[in-house]
Design brief:
binds manganese (II) ion, TIM Barrel, binds sodium ion, binds guanosine-5'-monophosphate, 9 strands, alpha/beta
Length: 253
């Protein structure tokens, strides 16, 4: 419970920082976006994973504040990159959204963050996990349609690990499926079935794919062969700070 109080303080003080991990086109190898990833460094315990503090925030009523902070800071950073780098700035940022943020307020919150920082809506992509969508499919669907209407792109995160029906998926206005990293890891053991099926499914629905957790050049080559649109993972680039990302794009973008 002390950790909850400390997390509340960290959110209020803006002590949650963001790292950015590039996402690459398989067509020409160029970085097309970054995913924004929340980080919390606790004074005594050191770094605490978002796999720990995001669920903690969800359980303790802090997720709304954390979500707003992540959204606002990502937009602020995009605007700063634009000022510093012009055309060389990261084209887009993907923002992870918790199941509990997926309510009627989200479209307005996204619109306000974009407007506050003078950004076009095409600069943001919202990542929603498959399981978040299935909590309340009807209301999720409504929120997604509003976001799409505003021009915000939508990606389904960790795709293949949840239980969304394909019939339901077909009627969602999403742009992209993120192939869960467990299916990318399997490639090393000769199992291409799931990654291959998800990529083929996405193509038949006219959706792009990001293969996540690409840790070796062999995986990158195989995923490219299978027709993935984009790649993300440690073998291509680690998540970097905002200024690190600017320096990296200045040489690589
Ligand atoms: O970056 P890392 O692999 O440690 O992230 C662990 C988990 O935390 C992943 O599932 C990731 O999607 C999630 N995560 C990271 N940043 C955010 C965030 O800003 N908001 C939400 N809701 N989840 C995040
Ligand atoms: O669930 P989500 O896809 O949002 O999780 C993103 C998390 O995946 C980030 O926290 C990031 O640190 C982590 N990540 C990024 N690249 C790799 C990778 O190549 N391997 C593994 N194991 N994790 C990765
Ligand atoms: Mn994600
Ligand atoms: Na994922």
């Amino acid at each position: 419970l002390r950790l909850v109080a400390e997390l509340r303080d960290a959110i209020e003080r803006g002590d949650i920082t963001l790292l950015y991990q590039p996402i690459f086109s398989t067509r020409d190898g160029r970085p097309v976006a970054v995913e924004s990833l929340a980080r919390w460094t606790h004074a005594e315990r050191g770094p605490i994973s978002p796999a720990v503090f995001v669920p903690l925030a969800e359980e303790s009523g802090l997720i709304a504040g954390l979500g707003l902070l992540v959204l606002d800071e990502t937009c602020r950073q995009l605007a700063e990159w634009d000022r510093l780098m012009g055309d060389g700035a990261p084209p887009r940022a993907n923002v992870n959204v918790s199941a509990l943020q997926l309510d009627a307020n989200l479209p307005a919150q996204v619109a306000e963050a974009l407007q506050r920082h003078g950004l076009h809506s095409s600069r943001i992509s919202i990542e929603i996990t498959e399981s978040a969508l299935m909590k309340d499919p009807d209301s999720a669907r409504l929120v997604l349609f509003q976001l799409r209407e505003q021009g915000v792109e939508l990606a389904i995160d960790d795709f293949g690990t949840g239980y969304s029906s394909l019939a339901y998926l077909r009627h969602l206005p999403v742009n992209c499926l993120k192939v869960d990293r467990s299916f990318v890891a399997e490639l090393a053991h000769g199992h291409t079935e799931i990654a291959s099926a998800v990529i083929a499914l996405a193509r038949s629905l006219n959706l792009s794919t990001v293969a996540e957790g690409v840790e070796t050049p062999e995986q990158a080559a195989e995923l490219t062969r299978l027709g993935a649109t984009y790649l993300q993972g440690f073998s291509l680039s680690q998540p970097m700070t905002g200024s690190g990302t600017a320096a990296w794009f200045a040489t690589r973008g």
